[in-house]
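During the first year of the project, the team set up a workflow for recording each protein of interest as an amino acid sequence followed immediately by a discrete structure-token representation. This format lets reviewers and collaborators read both layers of information side by side without switching files. As required by the reporting guidelines, we include two representative entries from the current panel. The first entry is reproduced here exactly as it appears in our internal archive.
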Amino acid sequence: MSTRFTLVFYVPMAAVEACKTAIFAAGAGKYPGQGEYTECCFTSHGMGQFRPGDAANPHIGQVGALEKVEEARVETLCVGEDVARKAVEALKKAHPYEEPAYAVFRMEDF
């Protein structure tokens, strides 16, 4: 069985669908098993915040100013390290932020 990973990322609401489309095209969101489910994820909404530093080129907001943005947190399954890496690469290309916030967690099979 391939190692499973969870990819979690935060994205402004206007770019949620573009980012989901990109990671799913890279193989994320496919649940292994008889049902052949694809494009599986969980999306929750919240408020993100950041303050761009002097060297930043922010997509939203101004350098030095605290910015608060309605964002989505998206969690999805990646089966295999290659899929996780391709999904992160696709996310970085599709995401509007200079530095997207994301995390990849290795899952254990019990």
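The second entry, processed by the same pipeline in the following quarter, appears below.
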Amino acid sequence: MYANFPDLKDSSVFITGGGSGIGASLTDGFLAQGAKVAFVQRSDATAFCDEMEEKHGTRPVFLPCDITDMSALKASMDEAVKANGSITVLVNNAANDKRHTTEEVDEDFWDWSQAINLKAYFFACQHVVGGMRAAGGGSIVNFTSISYMMGNAGYPAYTTANSGINGLTRSLAREFGPDRIRVNAVAPGWVLTQKQKDIWVTPEGLAAHIDRQCLKEELAPEDMVDPVLFLASKASKAMTGQSLVVDGGVVVTG
């Protein structure tokens, strides 16, 4: 069960990557608030939408989209507005943490990684601002990661983008604050989505990571929902330009 934020009822929410992993939990969480949710994803999410409709009595709007195509991303956001009204909550969640070494990165991989992990964030924010301004305000939540705070090796293009998301968040918070548009970030720790379990998790690696956590429990996708709902709602109306770390206590800020 998630915390209840009454002001999110009937709000128009747009989530990138909202049909799997953390994004699916976010879609579930916003629907539970009575929000109208639209999301983009490359893979087919029809079965997930069926599940959400059966659970909540409301079907999310699924818009197939490759977010590395900025024109397609903007067109999907326009379709979401037609379906649900002006977007007042944007969650930039989609990312790809494909492992790589510095020496094997070529320009095509670099551009692909930045397009998914940073470029799409910028242009989604840019595209939503006009509607939020006209609506009298809104909330943008950008997903980053503690990976760059830890100085992790193994995916330097990804950690570069994560660090850039924090810079983007702070600058846009300053630029759009006068329009009552708040921009914050969430920095998860190692969240055990099915993709992480299938590709990256090993018993030794997971045990070592949990040993670094203050809270000795695995992090699940649903653990990210309440923090995002909080940042989307008026409960956090005095917060902007911040990065909220949700990692079980691996890194410390301040």
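For the second entry, the following points were noted during internal review. Residues 107-135 form the longest helix (29 residues). Residues 80 and 182 are 20 Å apart (CA to CA). Both points are flagged for discussion at the upcoming steering committee meeting.
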